[in-house]
């Protein structure tokens, strides 16, 4: 059996490695557009300020290591066409036939159609080369004083921290009313926005960039849709991602509206013997059961295993995710899981929320800090469906326990209110913030 994998990031290489463990005799071939595989792209913001000293440390395994296990890896080759009827993939000078095909082409940054976007000094942050370029041409460049980051998602806010650490003036521009609007509700996000502002980030929300201003083809500023403008010497695009599937648009493979490949719980496409996973495909929301687009490394790695196991006849289902995520910005740490309040409302769920502001541990120990926890409960089922927590000093790691409660569909009742949380003064208070929140929901 010959298995061709298009794409060498988390989903593609994860599937390749698992396939070789499951079926050592299978011929596994990977075609990768870049010169490397297994990039940990979530670490790119940390390349900028030197927290990751060697950018190659973001490559979890070398090509030689994969080839040693029997996986054939062809780099600098972009597959541009697939003949699904005859099971052939094509690239410049390449024509290869498969028995099973895995499409794991990932995602590419969204580039807005605005004047100046092609100017010198406009960057994105997706590839290893991007991270090195932003580090060398912006972070380490003393002539660059002020930078605009367009997009206030996870990558945008993390990059703003890295550039502040490199003594740059940072302008973080977000079109929505708040930063991280898909992950945190308004009554929680102000903690994050305040932390950024306190540390020197100029935050613009409800603000749309209409033009990147150029002088002799070089960035000199950005103009807003309200007519105002600011001076900057560089722009980083962090608007979001779109599935890298344009080469499939004229084929019979089914795509979501945003171009993501539609897959079932076995990560099968609508075409026999063709699988997909990771940032180029749909996935499932574990709470609602609906198809979603969730370009997260954790999702990609799990789908990779499901694909490999199903090709190996193990009959495994991908049950979905609750889009758990966390982020550290200066001294503030934030985590979220499940549905936000806005998402629960959009789903038509009759829900109840509770928001508790407390302290991370007793006042008799120095260093006590604030912690805020929001829980969202389905009033009909009494199950937790979402949580957001913001604090410091690792206090947000409580999210791991809450993820388990949501995943297990545990009902909020008097027994759960008494959940036996561990206690010691350096970590928590005798009545933890989770106890307080559960008690409020249980009234």
Compact description:
With 443 residues, the chain is of the alpha/beta class. It is 23% helix and 27% strand.
Distance between the termini: 59 Å
Distinct helical segment count: 11
Parts with pLDDT < 50 across at least 5 consecutive residues: none
**Residues in β-strands, percent:** 25-35%
Give the % helix. 10-25%
Q: At the first level of CATH, what is the class of the largest domain?
A: Alpha Beta
CATH architecture of the largest domain: 3-Layer(bba) Sandwich
Q: Provide the gyration radius in Å.
A: 23 Å
Describe the protein.
It is a single chain. Helix 1 packs parallel to helix 7. A hairpin with a 4-residue loop joins strand 14 and strand 15 (229-231). With 443 residues, the protein is of the alpha/beta class. The longest helix is centred in the last third of the chain and has 15 residues, at 297-311. It has 3 domains: 2-37 and 58-107 and 242-311, FAD/NAD(P)-binding domain (3-Layer(bba) Sandwich), CATH 3.50.50.60; 111-239, 3-Layer(bba) Sandwich (FAD/NAD(P)-binding domain); 336-441, FAD/NAD-linked reductase, C-terminal dimerisation domain (Enolase-like, domain 1, 2-Layer Sandwich). The chain has 11 helices and 25 strands.
